[in-house]
Specification:
about 325 residues; alpha/beta; TIM Barrel; two-stranded antiparallel sheet; 10 strands
């Protein structure tokens, strides 16, 4: 496993982060989830990402149980706040001081830790003054409940405003967690340049495009039984944008490129996002422990410029690049 600094800080994270969105606490039995976490640790992954909204807090509980007994100082534990949790009442959502302060305490209890290494605003909250949100984060850092602060799916303008306030309030905003892969490149035009300017790193989710970039979905053929595209609990909805034959045909053009690089297609996809110097880590998940070995092998891989060009040629106009698609819900209910 290789490690990278997160933002303009002295804090290192593993190039591969284990995330338990869409799986633990909902789609995977707890004992299997624990096996996946243990497999991640065995593979050298030390960074774990979750959120209070995943499975309505159950994912945090599962992760906390799975990490029990591990040396806390050797782990980097991330979680997030924004989405509606608990009974989902009027103050159980958003980035108000009330919700943030109550949410961090709940997360720490479920994760069975005194602090998280990175606490992230899961989306931008248009209904709460940014000053209120950032002051709450500053207080959490001063209380020792979080060491660093990050955000997720913020635009370049939002990052600049949040970063300026964090400097004024005496803490570091060091990361953004966007969706990023060969097919979804909307952060490249604005978010990445702004982040480089501010000293903010990307921790990217969906590097394999919800599994589409693994090549297992073939044009003109039904999705494999048991795959995410057949999962009506949430996976099918997330992946449907990439299930058209044009995209699946383009993805199949990546197969010889992966073979030339000596990589599997999932490894190629994860290695591709890690070639971006502003990316500190790629988040991967697993519903079975054996799935992790493939992704972890992408750590430290260097793709030659010719390989990168061939990937661009294979995907072409299928890649979404519109920076306007980096956005948060206009209201807390969205």
């Amino acid at each position: 496993m290789e490690f990278r600094y997160l933002g303009n800080s002295g804090f290192k994270v593993s190039e591969i982060t284990f995330g338990n969105w869409l799986t633990h606490g909902s789609q995977v039995e707890n004992d299997v989830a624990t096996q996946c976490v243990k497999a991640a640790l065995d593979a050298g992954i030390s960074t774990f990402d979750t959120a209070d909204v995943y499975a309505n807090t159950a994912a945090e509980t599962v992760l906390g149980e799975a990490l029990k007994g591990e040396r806390r100082e050797s782990l980097e534990i991330f979680t997030k706040v924004f989405g509606a949790t608990g009974p989902k009442g009027k103050n159980d959502v958003g980035l108000s001081r009330k919700h943030i302060m109550e949410s961090i305490n709940g997360s720490l209890s479920r994760l069975q830790t005194d602090y998280v290494d990175l606490y992230q605003a899961h989306r931008y909250d248009f209904e709460t003054p940014l000053e209120e949100t950032m002051q709450a984060f500053a207080d959490i850092v001063r209380q020792g409940k979080a060491l660093y602060i990050g955000v997720s799916e913020w635009t370049a303008e939002q990052l600049r405003a949040g970063h300026a306030l964090s400097r004024e309030l005496g803490f570091q905003l060091i990361s953004n967690q966007p969706q990023y892969n060969m097919l979804w490149r909307v952060i490249e035009a604005e978010v990445v340049p702004a982040s480089e300017e501010l000293g903010v790193s990307q921790i990217v989710w969906s590097p394999i495009g919800q599994g589409v970039l693994s090549g297992k979905y073939l044009p003109g053929q039904p999705a494999p039984e048991g795959s995410r595209a057949t999962d009506e609990k949430g996976g099918a909805r997330m992946i449907e944008r990439w299930m058209g034959d044009d995209v699946l045909t383009g993805v199949q053009r990546l197969k010889p490129i992966a073979e030339e690089a000596g990589l599997s297609m999932p490894q190629l996809a994860v290695a591709w996002v890690l070639q971006n110097p502003n990316v500190a880590s790629a988040i991967v998940g697993a519903s079975r422990p054996e799935q992790l070995a493939d992704s972890v092998a992408a750590a430290g891989v260097i793709l030659e410029p010719e390989i990168m060009k061939n990937i661009d040629d294979a995907i072409g106009s299928l890649a979404e690049r519109d920076p306007a698609l980096t956005k948060s819900p206009p209201s807390r209910e969205a």
